[in-house]
Protein backbone atom coordinates (compact mmCIF):
# COMPACT_ATOMS: atom_id res chain seq x y z
CA UNK A 1 0.00 0.00 0.00
CA UNK A 2 1.21 3.49 -0.83
CA UNK A 3 2.02 5.76 2.11
CA UNK A 4 0.19 9.12 1.88
CA UNK A 5 0.25 12.28 3.94
CA UNK A 6 -3.09 13.22 5.51
CA UNK A 7 -4.24 15.56 8.25
CA UNK A 8 -4.99 13.54 11.37
CA UNK A 9 -8.51 13.01 12.68
CA UNK A 10 -7.32 11.83 16.10
CA UNK A 11 -4.07 13.74 16.85
CA UNK A 12 -5.33 17.26 16.23
CA UNK A 13 -5.07 20.54 18.06
CA UNK A 14 -6.14 22.95 15.32
CA UNK A 15 -6.40 21.39 11.87
CA UNK A 16 -4.51 18.11 12.39
CA UNK A 17 -1.49 19.08 10.25
CA UNK A 18 1.17 18.33 12.88
CA UNK A 19 -0.59 15.11 13.90
CA UNK A 20 -0.74 13.98 10.29
CA UNK A 21 2.94 14.70 9.72
CA UNK A 22 3.79 12.81 12.92
CA UNK A 23 1.71 9.81 11.80
CA UNK A 24 3.42 9.86 8.39
CA UNK A 25 6.92 9.79 9.92
CA UNK A 26 5.81 7.60 12.88
CA UNK A 27 7.06 9.99 15.58
CA UNK A 28 5.53 11.82 18.54
CA UNK A 29 3.22 14.68 17.47
CA UNK A 30 4.56 16.85 20.30
CA UNK A 31 7.96 16.98 18.60
CA UNK A 32 6.39 18.17 15.35
CA UNK A 33 4.31 20.78 17.19
CA UNK A 34 7.36 22.05 19.07
CA UNK A 35 9.33 22.32 15.84
CA UNK A 36 6.47 24.16 14.18
CA UNK A 37 6.27 26.68 17.05
CA UNK A 38 10.00 27.33 16.84
CA UNK A 39 9.69 27.72 13.07
CA UNK A 40 6.79 30.17 13.54
CA UNK A 41 8.76 32.28 16.03
CA UNK A 42 11.61 32.72 13.56
CA UNK A 43 10.04 35.26 11.25
CA UNK A 44 6.42 34.10 11.31
CA UNK A 45 6.57 32.00 8.15
CA UNK A 46 5.51 28.95 10.16
CA UNK A 47 2.02 30.39 10.60
CA UNK A 48 1.63 30.90 6.87
CA UNK A 49 3.05 27.44 6.17
CA UNK A 50 0.57 25.87 8.62
CA UNK A 51 -2.38 27.62 6.98
CA UNK A 52 -1.24 26.49 3.53
CA UNK A 53 -0.69 22.93 4.78
CA UNK A 54 -4.16 22.88 6.37
CA UNK A 55 -5.65 23.82 3.01
CA UNK A 56 -3.50 21.59 0.78
CA UNK A 57 -3.20 18.36 2.85
CA UNK A 58 -6.43 16.33 2.71
CA UNK A 59 -8.17 15.03 5.83
CA UNK A 60 -7.55 11.34 6.48
CA UNK A 61 -10.29 9.01 5.20
CA UNK A 62 -12.67 7.49 7.71
CA UNK A 63 -11.57 3.98 8.65
From TrEMBL:
Q: What is its main location?
A: membrane
**Topology term for the membrane:** Single-pass membrane protein
Q: Tell me where on the tree of life, at the top rank, the source sits.
A: Bacteria
Sorted alphabetically, the keyword list is:
Cell membrane, Membrane, Transmembrane, Transmembrane helix
The residue ranges crossing the membrane are: 34-57
Q: Which GO terms describe its cellular component?
A: plasma membrane
Pfam families in alphabetical order? PspC (PF04024)
User: Where is this chain's protein located in or outside the cell?
Assistant: Cell membrane
Domain Phage shock protein PspC N-terminal residue range list: 3-58
Q: What is this protein called?
A: Phage shock protein C, PspC
What is the species listed in this Swiss-Prot or TrEMBL entry?
Answer: Ethanoligenens harbinense (strain DSM 18485 / JCM 12961 / CGMCC 1.5033 / YUAN-3)
Q: What is the lineage of its organism?
A: Bacteria, Bacillati, Bacillota, Clostridia, Eubacteriales
Amino acid sequence: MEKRLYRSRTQRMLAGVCGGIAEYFNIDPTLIRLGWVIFACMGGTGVLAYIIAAIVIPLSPVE
